[in-house]
Amino acid sequence: MAGQEDLDWANWEYIEIITSNIKKITDFLNSFDMSRSRFATLREKLTALEQRIEYTEAWVTKGEMLT
């Protein structure tokens, strides 16, 4: 039965390697998703800031034209 035990051990090692790699992929994807979410929030903030700058520039330009 030594042959069967060797086969079981080899299968166990193979399963451990696959499980470990699946965990690594899952960690990477979770990290990527969190980063993507942070970038989306940052993009929204930058868009709002750009709009405020454009409004301020238009307001200042209009004020300069009046004087």
Key words describing this protein structure:
BRICK1 subunit of SCAR/WAVE actin nucleating complex; BRICK1; coiled coil; cytoskeleton; mainly alpha; single chain
Tell me the layout of helices and strands:
Layout: H1 2-66
What does this entry look like structurally?
This protein is mainly α and 67 residues long. 97% of the residues lie in helices and 0% in strands. It has one helix and no strands. It is rod-shaped and about 95 Å long. 0% of the residues are buried. The mean pLDDT is 88.
What's this, in brief?
The chain has one helix at 2-66. The chain has 67 residues and is mainly α.
Report strand %.
under 5%
Give the distance, in angstroms, between the N- and C-terminal Cα atoms. 99 Å
**Count of helical segments?**
1
Which radius of gyration do the C-alpha atoms yield?
A: 29 Å
Q: Overall 3D geometry?
A: rod-shaped
Main sheet summary: none
Average pLDDT for all residues = 88
Counting helices, strands and paired strands, the structural category is mainly alpha
- Regarding quaternary structure, how should these chains be classified? single chain
Q: Give the SSE string.
A: H
pLDDT below 50 for ≥5 consecutive residues: which ranges? none
Compute the number of strand runs. Answer: 0
